[in-house]
Amino acid sequence: MNDTYYDFYNEPIITTVFQNTKEKLDNINKKVHYHNCHELYFLVNGTRKYMLDNEIFDISKHDCVIVKKGTLHRTFGGNGFERYLIFFKDSYLTPYATEQVIEYVNKIFHKKIIHLNTDQFFEIQSYFKKLSSTTGINQYISFINIISILIQNINNSVQRKNNNNLITDITEYIEVNYKDIITLEQITREFLISKEYLCRLIKKNLGISVMSYLNIVKIKHADELLTNTDMNITEISFECGFNSSTYFGRIFKKIIGVTPSEYRKRFSDL
Fold it and tell me: Where are the alpha helices (DSSP H) in 89-135?
C-alpha cells in the first residue's frame, strides 16, 4: 500500500480512529488518493476541507462524508480534528444481505455529505465501537445500523462548497482531457494563468504536482479498464494517454505498487 492508491482487497471491512491537533497537521499525509473500497468519514470534532473528485467542501463537527470507491479525494486544513473511518467493499455485504438490503445500502451514495445531530452521532459512535471489536454477523448488524442512521438523515445533506472555482475547473479539465494533455502549457493556455500559479494552486489544494495528478487520473482510468475489460495492456496504455506501454507500466507500478499484469491477475483470482 502506498500513499496514492490504497488496496484493501483482502479485508472485508476496516475501521480506524484518528485524533490530531493543529500543531501536527503539517505532518499528515495530504496527498490526493483513491482506493478500491468505499469510505465513510465521520468528523467527530474540528473542521476540515474535503476534496471529492473535482469539488472541495468545508466540513465540520458531526458531518459524514460518503466516498465511493475509485473517487479521488483528500482532506486538509482546519483547526485540529478527530475523525472515525469505515472502509468497506461491496463484497462485504454479500454473505449476509439480500438484493433489497444491498440496494438500501447503496442509497447513501446518492449524497456526498450528510450532517447528523448530536444524539445520532453519539449513537453512531456506540455502533462504531461494536463494529471495531466484533466480527461476522454481529459486526454486520452494527454496520447496517450505522447505514440506517445515515439514510434516515439523507435529506440533511450539506453543500458547503469551498469557493475556489478555479481549482474545480482545472481538475475537471484534466479529468476530461487527460488523454491529450502532455505539457503544463496546455492547461495554462486554457485558463490564462502562469505556470507558476498553476503549480502553486494544485500543490496547495491537492498536495501533489500537476503532472503527478495527471498521472493519477490516467492510472485510475487504467485501473477501471484492467478490471472491467479484456483490452490488452498496450491498448490500455494508449487509451489512457501514455505514448509507451513501458512508461505506462513504470508509472502504474509507482502509483499502484504492482505491474499492470500483476494487478489484473490479482483481480481475476478473486
Answer: 99-105, 118-133
- Residue 163 is given by DSSP the state S
Compute the chain's Rg from CA coordinates. Answer: 19
Q: Residue 229: name the closest of 201, 199, 195, 267 by CA.
A: 267
The model's confidence at residue 24, banded by pLDDT at 50, 70 and 90, is low
Q: Is the pLDDT of residue 63 over 60?
A: yes
Domains and CATH numbers, the chain: 5-156 (2.60.120.280), 165-268 (1.10.10.60)
Q: How far apart are CA 108 and CA 100, in angstroms?
A: 14
List of residues 6+ apart from 110 with CB closer than 8 A: 154
Closest CA to 108 of 36, 39, 52: 39
pLDDT digit string (tens) for 187-238? 999 999 999 999 999 988 888 899 999 999 999 999 999 989 999 999 999 9
The answer to whether the CB of 62 falls within 8 A of the CB of 117 is yes
pLDDT band at 81; cut points 50, 70, 90: confident
Task: Tell me the pTM.
Answer: 0.81
**Residue owning grid cell 472515525:** 84
| Separation CA 75–CA 115 (nearest Å) | 17
d(CA 225, CA 63): 33
62: DSSP letter:
T
